[in-house]
Each structure stands twice: as C-alpha cells, then as structure tokens.
Amino acid sequence: xxxxxxxxxxxxxxxxxxxxxxxxxxxxxxxxxxxxxxxxxxxxxxxxxxxxxxxxxxxxxxxxxxxxxxxxxxxxxxxxxxxxxxxxxxxxxxxxxxxxxxxxxxxxxxxxxxxxxxxxxxxxxxxxxxxxxxxxxxxxxxxxxxxxxxxxxxxxxxxxxxxxxxxxxxxxxxxxxxxxxxxxxxxxxxxxxxxxxxxxxxxxxxxxxxxxxxxxxxxxxxxxxxxxxxxxxxxxxxxxxxxxxxxxxxxxxxxxxxxxxxxxxxxxxxxxxxxxxxxxxxxxxxxxxxxxxxxxxxxxxxxxxxxxxxxxxxxxxxxxxxxxxxxxxxxxxxxxxxxxxxxxxxxxxxxxxxxxxxxxxxxxxxxxxxxxxxxxxxxxxxxxxxxxxxxxxxxxxxxxxxxxxxxxxxxxxxxxxxxxxxxxxxxxxxxxxxxxxxxxxxxxxxxxxxxxxxxxxxxxxxxxxxxxxxxxxxxxxxxxxxxxxxxxxxxxxxxxxxxxxxxxxxxxxxxxxxxxxxxxxxxxxxxxxxxxxxxxxxxxxxxxxxxxxxxxxxxxxxxxxxxxxxxxxxxxxxxxxxxxxxxxxxxxxxxxxxxxxxxxxxxxxxxxxxxxxxxxxxxxxxxxxxxxxxxxxx
Length: 634
Prior knowledge:
Layout: E1 5-8, E2 20-21, H1 35-40, E3 41-44, E4 60-63, E5 66-69, E6 75-78, E7 83-84, E8 89-90, E9 95-96, H2 97-114, H3 117-133, E10 143-144, E11 150-151, H4 169-185, H5 190-210, E12 218-221, E13 224-227, H6 235-250, H7 255-269, E14 294-295, H8 301-312, H9 318-334, E15 341-342, E16 346-348, H10 353-366, H11 369-379, E17 393-394, E18 399-400, E19 403-404, E20 410-411, H12 416-431, E21 437-438, E22 442-445, E23 448-451, E24 459-461, E25 478-481, E26 484-488, E27 496-504, E28 512-517, E29 520-526, E30 540-543, E31 556-562, E32 565-574, E33 576-581, E34 584-589, E35 595-598, E36 603-607, E37 613-618, E38 622-624, E39 629-633
Parallel strand pairs: 1-35
Antiparallel strand pairs: 2-21, 3-4, 5-6, 7-8, 9-10, 10-11, 12-13, 14-15, 15-16, 17-18, 19-20, 22-33, 23-32, 24-25, 25-32, 26-31, 27-30, 27-32, 28-29, 28-31, 33-34, 34-39, 35-38, 36-37, 36-39
Helix pairs in contact: 2-3, 2-4, 2-12, 3-4, 4-5, 4-6, 6-7, 6-8, 7-8, 8-9, 8-10, 9-10, 9-11, 10-11, 10-12
C-alpha cells in the first residue's frame, strides 16, 4: 500500500464567512414556485391540420418560448425568429414542442410531489398540445404560431427540415413527457392515459424504424468506435427519451418499449470516456460525432442510466453513471463550476440552468449518499455561489435567469428553458430535503488553462473559424511548432497533471513532442489518431496526460517538437483540486496515492472512485483517495 502524504490546502480557499443551511421539511417551505412558468403558459385552439389530432376538444395548453426583461422589471413573452406584426407570426413560432414537453414534465412532477390539481390540469393541457404536434409518422412538428398554426419549416432552418421528417431532440423530449405522463394519468384518468400510451407507442415505433434499425452498428470517429443507434447521434437527446421510456416501463409499458429502452441505455453507457487521470475523466460524452466535445446542456445521461437501471433491473447500467457523477462532476465543479462546454478546453464558460440541472439530476438520481453531498455544491449555483455572486433563482417569483456569461454577467431574461430546468431542480431539492443549501462566494483551486499562443517560440496561426466542426480552438488560434517553445506558468504548492491539448492527425508520419520542466522529463506525445470516419473534420483536438506531473513549485514548461505540431493549450490539473463555498469544501483527487490534507472545517467524508464512503474524520486530517472525492463540512 502506498503511504499517505500530508498536504495543506491553504490560501486559495479562504473566503468570507457564509452559511450552510439544511432544509428539513418541518422548518423550511418549498423551493419550487410555478408562478413564472404559469405566466409563460397560455392556450390556443389550433386550426385543423391534416393528420394532427389530440385528445378531446377545445383549447390546448401551450408555452411561450422566451420572456425578455423590460426596463421596468416586468417580462414580455415572445416567440422565436423574426416577428411579422402584419401576420402575427414568427420566423420560427411562438410555442415549441421542446419546451411544451419539458414543461409538462415539470407539472407532472409537481403533482406527484404536492398533489396540486392545478398542476395536473396544466400537465393535461400541455400534453394535449404536444400530441397535436405529433404527426402520423410518429415524429413531431417543432413550432406552432400564436394562433396555433403549425410551422414545420422554420426560419432560420432547423434540422430535420421539415421538423417532423425524422428523429429529433423534440421527438426525444416528447417521449420523455409522454412516458412520465402515462405513469401519472394511468392512476387518475385511464382514458387519457390510454391515449398517451397510444401516442407514445407511435413515437417508439418511429424511433425503432429510424434509429434502432442501426442497433449493434458502430460509427468510427477519429479512430474510436461509437454506437450508431443514438437519437440524432446524441447521448444527450437519447438520455431525455430514456427518462420517459424508464417511467413508462416502470409503469407497465409494453415489451417493445422495454426493448427500446434497453438498447438506448446500452448505447448511452458506451459513451463513457477517459479515466481518473485522462480527459474527460470518466464523463459520459454527449455527442456521437466527436471525441473532443463535452457540453453540459441536455447531458442527462447519468440520470437516464440510473432510471433505466432501476426500470429494467440491470445494475450494471449504473456503473458509467457513477463514473460520470463521482469522477467527472467533482472535477468540473472545482474547475470553475458547471460550465457549458469543454471543447475540449473549458472555453464555453457560460453557465445555464439547462446544464446545471442535468448535473444536479444525475447526482440525485444515482442516489449515493456522497453524491447527494456533491449535489449541494451544484445546487448552490442557483443561490448565488457562482461567478456573478448573485442568485440565479428567485423563489418569490419562480424565475430562473437565462444564464451567466464567462465573465460573470447575468442575462436577466427568463425564458421557458431556464424556467423549466430551474423548476426541475427546485422540485428535486424539495424531494431531497437532506441536500444541504450552501450559500457564499465560491473559491476554486482546480484546472488551469495556459494558452499555447502565450509561449515563447513557434508561430501563432488563426484559422478562418475557431470551430472545427467537432471541437473548438480555445482562443480562436493555435501554436504551430517545429522546434522548441516555452511557457512561464503560475506556481503551485501541489504537483499538477500536465495535459497538452494537441491536434491529433491520422497520418503515418505524425509529429512528436517532448515535454520538460528544467531538467525533469515529463513525457513524450505522438500526435496521431485513427481514421476520421463520420467526424466533421480531419484530426481531433485532444488533451493528453503526460506520464509525469509538474512538480510542486515548478514555473517553467518546455516542449520540443519533431515534425510540425499544432498546440491549442496546456491544461494544468492539481492532484487535489478544491471548491469552497462558505464553510464547506469539495475535494477531488487525481493523485496516484492516498494522502491526508488539512482543510478548514469540522468533519470530513471521503469517498472512493465508485462513490463508496471509505473514511470519516476531522477536517484537520482529511483523507483523499485516488479518483475519489471528499466533502468537508464546517
């Protein structure tokens, strides 16, 4: 056994005093408040459209897409695309299936938790409009105009076009809503439940016909085999369908639904990547056309796998969900919070409720006690523990703001998507009163980015577009090197993993780079990948971990290239990274050894790479273990 090492986690964690408040049901009111979502709702009576019908007669419930904040602090409901006042139409539409489906899930879950008749009625109205948007082929029209007229081809164009001509995110979200709808209404309105079941089976048939026809086949993406049977080649879209399928199967759904669920869950599980020391650190990757793109929005893969594991009775489906939540999420949080995109460098530092909610739901769905403690750090984003230092959720009005930019500016609009996912988060917290509420200014000591272009040596190249088609150059440019370059980097009291972000090329004569600090060798990389396959661009931007870490106190980094190498950035990851909010601290370890650290606080809880509790102790002697995380409470 390797001996433990003692480290002091120090000055970077010192912040102003703040509070940690538990939310026992007897002492605190609800966090969820549907007032703003109710404000976005309205009803319409759609004109007749060939092949489009719904349950019953009369107006259906719909939801405005956006809500823009006005100078006087009020909100104006608007649709998507350019507005034509003469025809009262939008280029896209006023209402859309994506938001209608997800809002229905909010009202269904609110009813399940609080048994509000108004929520059940709202869910019914939204499900009636959602099924009106469904076409006879099982697919779904995305947009509806203010008077209820369908708009299958939006401006700007969205794929597929027409929107009901193939599988889509909105078909996946329709399955989500119909599955959860059936599970609720089978106990309250059997006729409506039977209708929902028929429409869900229609959607499942469309997925089987258009997507699962490729079950068991694989796409090649820069040398990696990825499942070809994901909805729109996305584990993200598939995960939302899986949530609905899981609810349906658990409620007695058909054998066909069970088979569809099992196959989609299998494909999602195969999107796990990396290891505790290799990018993306056991994350479930969302997009089946890139090995370099992780994004937060829609990344419901861990919660989907947890739901599928339970519905199908297949425990092994939980393993990749644990890897994502216990391995990747703590590192994401210590790197600066729930950023929107690691592409592969963490450059989309926007933070939105759609991404935050996906992280929170995954932690709570997997359900391990330690992950509930991590969930408190994610949930704190809503209550002011973010770059802006201000709450993103207003419990008095039910508004969730539309996001925070990378430099800490809040977008105070409050559209449907943000409102929906804010409420899904609040409902999850209302259902898990044992998740602590943390408030205070966050302090991070985690992943650092050194732009390659800041080196001495090499040539800076700015391509026509920062986006490659599958990934993104972090500063809009890169360093072309055939020789030697050097950087001065900030000092650290810890060892740090060094992950150069390099462009890998499928070639028989790849570039090689050798990395050093002073006289110490850190490692050599070969800049090669496998065949391009269905990837949109040749080559792949990838962070590769050097064999040896950067020693504590080191401030120089040198690279020598044989052949022309393309360098995007260098990522430096402390062996023990940390996030402190108020009197509570989250630690994540990528070390090779267990070690003891000293952290301000009282009690520490140490979890291994599988989320299992392995030690409890005092904060002054806090144990961290390889690939695991530790929570310290004040």
